[in-house]
Every structure is written in C-alpha cells, then in structure tokens.
Amino acid sequence: MPDARRLNSVEAEQSVVGGLLIDPTRIGDVAALLKPADFTGDLERKVFGALVEMDAAGTAVDVVTVCEFLEDRGALKDGDMAMAFVMARDTFSAANVLAYAGVVRDRSRRRGLAVLGGHLQRWAVEDGDAEKTLLRLKQALDALDGGTEAGGLVPLRDLLAGCIDVMDQRYNGVAPQGMPTGLTDLDRMIHGLQPGKLYVVAARP
Question: Is the pTM of this model over 0.85?
C-alpha cells in the first residue's frame, strides 16, 4: 500500500510559508508556482493565500499583518498566530524557498493524480468505450497540469471534482467546448469560441 506521507510534505509547506514571511519579496516568484489549494495544512493554505492577496494589493507583509488580515476575515483560529511565528522563526533563510515550493507543487500534483486514478477506474467501467475514457483522461490531465486560480482557499479534491464535472458536460455536449462568450444562445450555436477562428458578430441597427 502506498505511503500517504509521500503525498504531502509538512516541512516543505511550512518552509515555503516561513520563507515568505521573512522575505516577502519572493511572494511573486512562489505564487507563479503554487496556489493555496496546493497546501494540505489549513494554516499554511490560509497564510499563503493571504500573502498572495496582500502582496497583490501592495500591503506590508509580516506575521502580524498577515494574522490581522486573516482575523478580519474570521479565518484566524486560536493558536494560529503563535504557529505562524514559529514557522517564521524556524525558517532560517528564504534562499531555498523555490526549491521548497517545487516539493509542495510535486506533492499536490501527485494527490491530484491519485484522485484522478479513482475516477479513471470508474470511467473505464462506465464508458464502454476506450476512446471516450482516454479523452476524459487527457482533459483531466490537462486541467490538473494547468493549475488553479490564485486566491481561492479550496481543497484540491474539490477543484478536481469541479474540473471533471465540466469535462463531462463538455464531452456530452451540455457545456460549450470552447471559451464561453456569456451569451447562452450564441454559445449553444458555436460551442464557444474556438482557438484559431475569427468570429464576426453582426446585428441589425
């Protein structure tokens, strides 16, 4: 049986958060690699999300301001501030923060693949068509590799489930295949905006 501990690294997650708390100038670099949902630790996920949001807003970042940010949003639990100070104190340098971020990202993708494996078994049984199952698998892998939007404190399993629902809808023709325009009737007619195509929309004056 696989060792579940290989699917996350508490030390790497805490080192990323601690490194950014002591050197906020690295937030942008790490945010390009990670999303809050990549963290398994509740506090680490919340603090990272706060760091990214505060950095984008140009707000001064340190342990106190981050905890105040979370407290204002009702997201700070008893003991969270003390633990945040511990993470910052125990991280000696932010020099290796990108390496730690790489570990966190790797574990996050592995967890996504583990969840996807369960769906793949179900698809293989239910689809009755290898091509359909392979198409679903490719779409799911593309969605997993594409990452998630920054700022949302959402578990990876919830994000992946949402991606799978959308892919099911697209495959069955329920949702637009391309980028939605927001105009329901138009999306139904053209199946969303497709790459490499020019669209001209005209109407009577």
Answer: no
